[in-house]
Amino acid sequence: MMLSTFRTAALCCCRRAGHGYKPSNNLQLRLFRRNQGTIAAEAGATCGSATATAVPNAATNRIVGRWLVGCSGLVIGAVVLGGVTRLTESGLSMVDWHLVREMKPPQTQEEWEAEFSKYQQFPEFKILNHNMTLPEFKFIFYMEWGHRMWGRLVGLSYILPAIYFWRKGYFTRSMKGKVLGLCGFVFFQGLLGWYMVKSGLEEKPESHDIPRVSQYRLCAHLGSALLLYCASLWTGLTLLQSPQKMIETKHLMLLRKFAKGTGALVFITALSGAFVAGLDAGLVYNSFPKMGERWIPDDLLAFSPTLKNFFENPTTVQFDHRILGISTLAAITSLYLFSRKVMLPKRAKIAISLLTAMAYGQVALGISTLLLYVPTPIAATHQSGSLALLSLAIWVLAELRKVPK
Fold first, then answer.
1. Nearest to 399 by CA among 350, 328, 335
2. How many C-alpha atoms does 209 have within 13 Å on its Cβ side?
3. Which of 32, 151, 207, 251 has a CA between 20 and 30 Å from the CA of residue 169?
4. Per-residue pLDDT for 10 more than 70?
């Protein structure tokens, strides 16, 4: 456009020169400035259009936030299904681990008998299930198979959308690091699950106890799932919900710290449930509030060294879980009462109220599970309740977070 304008100006000058007219330098200067202004305006319009369609933006952040919250929901399903698999003693039914080949369960009678014969070579069948029939084996096999297939679904739900969003430019630099961490953690979680199962398939000639997976590996497997869940839910919520403006007071700052400590206590209490499940500690003392006839049982520190009791003594493990549960309830109740002294937005008040209500429901479920000798439906509901409580704790923290400057 500038070249065309200069050409027109030169032609006019030549024509006028033939009539004895000499153009002034001011005319050329005005033409040059006008063209410069036109080009700048067009460039500004182009930049404005590019800015309007730039990614990531608020719309893409909402899409990514919904994706991460959805993934966290799938993680909940995996944890709940894993708890049911543990309660039905189905976790050791699949004695091999293949990423693709095991996705198709046995189809024919011959395939089922071959799978059953492999299971018969391991301690769980020899010691615990030596009278098991093929139909009974099919039930526990499908329980474990469903859990593993759900885990693969979780992995695909993280990895495939992450690749798509990455190529579309939906991630900021910091979000790319978070997404890589989440996807890597999903893969690690699968390997950790098989590492846990292997501990229950090992021959232990010196032990005549019921074959079970290592409570340490079970705790690591559950803990990594909970970390994956918390990270996904927190990141998703922070993308979906902008922080609410609150008057920064001393009480509000104390409430934030209190909420963080309470959330950590909820997490630790849920994690201690892995030791209860791994040692079948829920079947040791089925009374409440006392353990048998005593507040503190005689065999609380029966193992030596003393530290071993907290991880391997079923009595101590159940006692610790009780104390943690009651402490969590007390902390959440105190958080609710303290929050009444602080001016909070409506959403934050609702989150704290729901957290408190869920805490009392979760304690009631725990006591019922204990008194009724750990029935599978109630025990599974209690395990699910720990996730609901953890979810509400994360929501509270998301609502109370500071507005970035």
1. 350
2. 12
3. 151
4. no
Q: Are 263 and 257 in contact (CB under 8 A)?
A: no
Please give the helix or strand (H or E) that residue 41 lies within, else none. Answer: helix 25-52
**Amino acid at position 258, single letter:** F
Q: At residue 343, what is the residue type?
A: M
Helices (H), 241-345: 250-278, 309-312, 314-339
- Alpha carbon 123 to chain centroid distance? 34
Long-range contacts of 250-256 (CB under 8 A, 24+ apart): 251/338, 251/341, 251/342, 252/342, 252/400, 254/338, 255/335, 255/338, 255/339, 255/342, 255/400, 256/400, 256/401, 256/402
Enter the pTM of the model.
Answer: 0.83
Average of pLDDT values for 15-43?
A: 46
Residue whose token pair is 């803990």: 223
Tokens of 102: 């095991």
The SS3 of residue 252 is: helix
* 190, 75 contact by CB (below 8 A): no
Spatial neighbors of 33 by CB under 8 A, at least 6 apart, are none
Residue 331 has what pLDDT? 98
User: Of 27, 23, 25, 24, which is closest to residue 13 (Cα–Cα)?
Assistant: 23
Residue (of 263, 266, 245, 280) closest to 401 by Cα position: 245
pLDDT tens by residue, 276-308 = 999 999 999 999 999 999 999 999 999 999 999
Residue pLDDT, tens place only, 47-64 = 444 444 577 888 999 999
Please give the torsion angle defined by the CA atoms of residues 328, 225, 72 and 277, in that order, rounded to the nearest 10 degrees. Answer: -60
- Which DSSP category does 295 fall into? S
